[in-house]
Amino acid sequence: MLAAGLSAAAIGFPAAAQAATAPNDGFAAATVITSLPFSTSEDTSQATSDPSDPAGCSSNGSVWFSFTPSSDMRLEADTFGSNYDTVLSAWTGTQGALNLVACNDDTNGAQSKITFAATAGTTYYFMAAQCCGDGGTGGGSLQFSVSQLVPPGNDNFANATPIGALPFSDTQDLSAATAEPAEPQPGCFGTSNTVWYSFTARTTGSITATTDQYGSGIAAYTGSSLASLSQVGCAEAANYYPVTFRAQAGTTYYFQVGGWCCGFGPVTFHLDVAPNPVAQLYYYPSDPSSFDTIQFYDESNDPAGAGISSRAWDFGDGATSTLQYPTHRYTADGDYTVHLTVTTVDGRTASTSQVLQVRTHDVAITRLAVPNSAHVGQTISITVYLQNTRYPETVQVDLSKSIPGGFAGVGSLTESVPVKTAGQTTRFAFSYTVTSDDKAIGKITFKADANIIGYRDALPGDNELLSTPVKVG
User: Residue 165's domain spans which residues?
Assistant: First the structure.
């Protein structure tokens, strides 16, 4: 037990060890990177966040590194291999007045990666921190790396990769690509990471350019220098919407491929002969009669993405149309070959044909014969007269009688109905026994309904008929 007033150090015991922070914990003590590539591991579990650390990207338990490139270059820094959730950022300026260059959290799981264009003679400060909200002072085992990204060989317009035979495919890492000072911005997306391709058409015909990756776009140009380029096509999401146009024989076309979203990386560029459109037509109703106004639909599509610009319909009876959704009525039954030709914006064509059968199926109830009166217990005859002048049909006739609130079925007959000249009919003969319920009402009204089996009646309005009332005494 120590005597009052004496410290442990005063009597020869060592003082309690103080936990050491990381040597580059503060901005002023940033580890200087002298050459690339650079990689290091360190324990940041006791790293702190200095009040002067910049806001705008996590500074919880931060450590610092600095690098001054001797020439313009593109840098890539990452924390891959660290055992905690990191946030990585890059800055320029002085302590307390820093400007954010790049910031990233969770590019690869819990680790981070940033890429940016660095200017010769400018000092860049890298801050590696623990992700916001994780708590604690620092992080853990940090693995930090910086390297120079070497631009692809076709990074500049003058070094555009020449394309020979089609189809053509090539993959380049856009994270290392740059944009030249005089390089045009594509008309449909913004980018600072581009590569170039050139293609000289041997024959006149449509070509289509696409990419495989989301966040990449394509612009196509004619011209011989950056200053003289004229854009002929552009697609922001080139993995979904191709750049398609008609290439003229002997003309050289330049394709600018760039990334605009979601972390630039390897992007595959494709150039091929544009496929023809796919012509498709549809019509309604599917069983038209000479009384129907038929609705036609052009359901063609262009897999090359340029779009359908014009249509030519031939309805097979001498009538034509150029509408996308025309209507047409045939005046007589028959088999008509409907022909549709579609043309894309760039001049590709496709055609399709269908044989349309016009058949007018129509029967009519012309008379419903019943007695004038009847009494309870009497069996009476009801005859339905059916007219058919077009095609032999199988017809079902349903007979019903009036009851309070509507009708109730009393019989059904299905018969073959031949074609007969106008005025001649086919008879459907029913019988019915009068009941006491009928007497209570005092009369019976019969209703006949005719339905063609297997076909739609072109004029269904004359398929139903009511009888005169039968008095029940």
Answer: 157-273
Q: Is the bond preceding residue 167 a cis peptide, omega within 30 degrees?
A: yes
Cβ–Cβ under 8 Å, residues 333 and 391: no
Q: Is residue 313 classed exposed, middle or buried when 0-12, 13-18 and 19+ CB atoms within 10 A define those classes? A: buried
Our CA angle for 29, 30, 35, nearest 5°, is 135
Q: Are 66 and 125 in contact, with CB atoms under 8 Å apart?
A: yes
Residue 345 structure tokens:
């914006």
Instruction: Give CA separation, 376 vs 416, 429, 434, 455, in Å.
Output: 33, 21, 5, 40
CATH of the domain at 289: 2.60.40.10
The CA distance from 96 to 53, in Å, is 7
Apex CA 237: angle with CA 345 and CA 76, to 5°?
145
215: left (phi over 0), alpha (psi -120 to 50) or beta: left
Burial letters 354-385, b for 16+ CB under 10 A, else e: eebebbbbbbbbeebebeeebeeeeebebebb
Tens of pLDDT, residues 287-315: 999 999 999 999 999 999 999 999 999 99
Which of 323, 358, 393 is at the close of a domain? 358
Are 176 and 147 in contact by the 8 Å Cβ rule? The answer is: no
Are 328 and 296 in contact by the 8 Å Cβ rule? The answer is yes
Residue 58: CB atoms within 10 Å: 25
- Identify whether 65 is part of a domain: yes
User: In this structure, which amino acid lies at residue 70?
Assistant: S
Structure confidence by residue, pLDDT tens digits, 58-112: 888 899 999 999 998 889 999 999 999 999 999 999 998 999 999 988 766 788 9
Residue 19 lies in a domain: no
Q: Model pTM?
A: 0.73
For residue range 149-181, list pLDDT tens digits in order.
899 999 999 999 999 999 999 999 998 898 999
**Beta-carbon contacts of residue 214 (< 8 Å; ≥ 6 apart):** 237, 239, 261, 262
Q: Which of 91, 132, 128 is nearest to 112 (CA)?
A: 128
DSSP 46: T
Q: Are residues 435 and 396 in the same domain?
A: yes
For 413-425, b/e burial (b = at least 16 CB within 10 A) is eeeebeeeeeeeb
Q: Are residues 123 and 43 in the same domain?
A: yes
Distance separating the N- and C-terminal Cα atoms of the chain: 130
| Residue 213, strand partner residues | none
CA separation for the pair 304, 242 (Å, rounded): 6
Tokens of 406: 């509507």
